[in-house]
DNA sequence: CTTAGCGGATCAAAGGTTTTCATCGAGGAG
DNA sequence: CTCCTCGATGAAAACCTTTGATCCGCTAAG
């Protein structure tokens, strides 16, 4: 017995059993065309017989590829697990990467410590590429990642110059127009807006959509909008502020479902009926929220699963050195009507 | 210029610059004691000067260690991103593993395909160990993982024999007793229970706590409990069923916050005031839910962050071949009073 | 008859680290 | 002054795979 019985089989073992050289066996595994049908079959048989699994480390060493991709979130941690949106993104990433047989290495980077660690990790060549979720202005993570010679695809537009960056964004502005037009078509005349934090471009795009649908200038917009910070509590407060400032309001477009849930609470407390007195439209179409508010929330759907899938496909192309026709892609948004508007 | 200027520095480069051999440099990096202070300093200087990063693949190849750990969830996907509990677990895992400088490879395994992939992946030696979240009866994932020669720590008790298994559980039964005793101490006499799905041991433990606190036999318990499946919708329905079966009920212990949110909706619709007519206690103390129900939910806290942290520490010990005093650990639960009871 | 070409297999090097084993030098004991 | 011991160091093997260069046996073209 030359082969020890407990050690995992190596390519050498496979080759021996198939009666070919290591190199040929390797070619079979890598689907090289230059290999005879008999050899191919013999090797495949040996592989299944032995239950052979290529040694990832050895392969990585010579190919200089790790077969792993980092998924980075820069969001503050409380937000990450209060907002179901993140769970959804993570889930979609896990699935899409698994489908490609790529390892997903998840990193939540928030503190400066985390940033240093992320830098070390990415610079250390431990992954082939990265998916980055970092929406905030002056996000350190982006500047860290940007100067690394590493293929990266961003979710949404990171702050700063977009030159040469690869990203997949949702049509936030278009969705906001959709929402606002819908409210107009219901005959609403005093429409206000609870925005996200204005250090995120997605929030700004939604605000811009709102403004353009109503042909507002900056001054007019300032009176009719309030920042809700993309949190439930922020949504409550912003709604209160708007009620005080614009008592006659009859509709509100809220830039996220989570904030909309908060806004609805405020409206209830203020005795306004939804949708009779005030029509409400959210953004995200997050089922777990939108279907459970009172009343169920009309919302703009952005397909996060699709977004992440496209991001992964994009990154895979970069890794294969394929040329990508469009570095920056935009995904459509649609309105999902329920009962709140 | 012997050293190419763009390639990442190797240990050889570090050694050359420090004027020592590769072996000595390696010893410094691995904190071996048998190295002179001068050599140590020289190597460290060279490392920082060059910005050297060890090549993970090369190291893995020789040590037969990958420096990566798999985190496996067997939960059906919709649940994973509707229930904030999972986001919390994932977050905690990411943090705890990052603190140990270990890569976290996240896998969501649900379909038979996923199981096959997980098996291939784990058997392929691509990770040093695994954290497994698989609470359901006859979970394929558990049987797959169990027969692998891989250090594994489970979250909660997996179904089946526990012999030799490493796990970190919450004191579900104790928490349920706490909750029920609390309701008794409020003078409630007709207390009912919305349970989780009875193919999860955590749900069974909570049910058992409820039963023992009220000294119920199986028959009595059957009348006073209803399965809510750990979903919000299930909570609604279970509460309806209980209201029909036990019209005079004046308190309910619900085995999860998400279900409790549903149960509260049902109670409101039925015109029962909370807590005046019916006192409600949940389980999980998930802030994002418990603080936003109407009224805010009294709940049993299980510290998931702590649980995951302990799991990671436990796994690290296994990886270092340290003997662990207790293979199976139990974490305490406490009651967090709010307004619903 | 020589040689270029070709399909297909093999050889051997390379990739970066850890670790065993041997060596070297210094200092202490006899 | 010699012999030992011991700590620090270096040389080299081992880990497993990929891949460019080489080689072999033959056919077809010159």
Could you outline the blueprint of secondary structure elements for this entry?
Two copies of one chain form a homodimer.
Chain A: H1 11-18, H2 22-29, H3 37-50, H4 56-63, E1 68-73, H5 77-82, H6 84-99, E2 103-108, H7 112-123, E3 129-133, H8 140-146, E4 152-155, E5 166-170, H9 172-185, E6 191-195, H10 201-213, H11 218-224, E7 225-227, H12 232-245, E8 251-254, H13 257-269, E9 279-284, H14 287-290, E10 298-302, H15 304-319, E11 328-331, E12 333-336
Helix pairs in contact in A: 1-2, 1-3, 2-3, 6-15, 7-8, 9-10, 12-13
The structure holds a DNA duplex (30 and 30 nucleotides).
Task: Tell me what the structure shows.
The structure is a homodimer. Chain A is of the alpha/beta class. Helix content of chain A is about 45%, strand content about 15%. The first copy, chain A, is built from 15 helices and 12 strands. Chain A has helices at about 10-20, 20-30, 35-50, 55-65, 75-80, 85-100, 110-125, 140-145, 170-185, 200-215, 220-225, 230-245, 255-270, 285-290, 305-320, and strands spanning about 70-75, 105-110, 130-135, 150-155, 165-170, 190-195, 225, 250-255, 280-285, 300, 330, 335. In chain A, the strands form 2 sheets. Chain A has a 6-stranded parallel sheet with strand order 2-1-3-4-5-11, with helices on both faces. Chain A has a 6-stranded mixed sheet with strand order 7-6-8-9-10-12, sandwiched between helices. The interface between A and B is large, with 44 and 44 residues. Chain A binds a DNA duplex (30 and 30 nucleotides) through helix 2 and helix 4.
